[in-house]
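Example S7 (structure tokens).
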């Protein structure tokens, strides 16, 4: 339930990305940009890293703008009997947002570093396999495509496209990098329960990110939410760029029925996703400041 207050006409964005993962703006640039757009607060929620949070908090303090320390963690659904969509190019997964409203986000660093180490072990294996198949690419070329330091299969695919080995990133995944393809190696991830626990143990609030991408509605989505709630989930991103009005209404209702907090954000990546604007998504997103007040109230 979002408690309305006198601040309900101030707007926020609790899902943004910087160059620390896959956004186009540095953390400081992102905060300045949000400030210039008139937002009252933002959360920096980079993928599997909090490396940009300190810079974002510092710039927020300088401007007098509220910045929330956050993270977005990918968790595997491979061990779940999950009825969601999939085209075979990716392992089934969901994303969790973690908000550290009382500080102390540094305590999740150990978990995130472990995830990064596993990713860094995977990428060279993929590149070596591609070399064995006759493709002339290197890890240095892959890393150059990931200025934030977090490289993955999309960056490998970009190198292959630029070198003429494929016509598109989609073709790279279809032929070489997707599940069951010759250069595919499984990436170790946390389970949803482990991801929720990691956020809770670090003093954060675990929230299910963009449930629209799970491809579930009605009773199926309710079952997933109940399972996540039992594991400690505290909120759901009911206000999101890709939602239809009907889905937003359904998510708000499910949040109330399951005793979950509501969160919301644009999933802003800067110029890398030019159709998504900070604070407003594709034009009609509005996340009232009351959402952040509700999160702070627990």
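Recovered sequence:
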């Amino acid at each position: 339930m979002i408690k309305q207050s006198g601040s309900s006409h101030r707007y926020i964005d609790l899902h943004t990305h910087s160059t620390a993962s896959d956004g186009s703006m540095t953390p400081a640039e992102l905060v300045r940009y949000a400030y210039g757009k008139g937002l009252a607060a933002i959360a920096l929620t980079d993928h599997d890293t909090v490396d940009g949070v300190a810079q974002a908090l510092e710039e927020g303090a300088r401007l007098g703008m509220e910045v929330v320390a956050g993270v977005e963690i990918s968790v595997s659904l491979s061990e779940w009997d999950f009825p969601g969509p999939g085209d075979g190019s990716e392992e089934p997964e969901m994303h969790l947002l973690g908000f550290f409203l009382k500080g102390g986000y540094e305590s999740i660093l150990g978990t995130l570093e472990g995830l990064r180490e596993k990713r860094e072990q995977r990428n060279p294996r993929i590149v070596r396999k591609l070399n064995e198949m006759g493709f002339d690419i290197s890890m240095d070329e892959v890393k150059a495509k990931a200025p934030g330091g977090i490289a993955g299969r999309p960056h490998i695919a970009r190198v292959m496209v630029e070198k003429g080995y494929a016509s598109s990133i989609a073709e790279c995944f279809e032929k070489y990098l997707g599940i069951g393809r010759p250069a595919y190696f499984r990436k170790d991830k946390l389970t949803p329960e482990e991801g929720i626990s990691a956020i809770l143990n670090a003093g954060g609030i675990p929230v299910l990110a963009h449930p629209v991408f799970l491809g579930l509605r009605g009773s199926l989505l309710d079952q997933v939410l109940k399972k996540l709630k039992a594991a400690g989930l505290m909120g759901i991103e009911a206000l999101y760029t890709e939602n239809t009005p009907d889905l937003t209404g359904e998510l708000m209702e499910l949040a109330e029925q399951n005793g979950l907090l509501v969160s919301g954000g644009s999933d802003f990546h800067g110029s890398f996703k030019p159709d998504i604007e900070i604070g407003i998504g594709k034009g009609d997103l509005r996340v009232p400041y009351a959402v952040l007040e509700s999160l702070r109230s627990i």
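Notes on this example. The beta strands are 11-16, 41-44, 66-76, 93-100, 205-208, 235-240, 261-265, 287-288.
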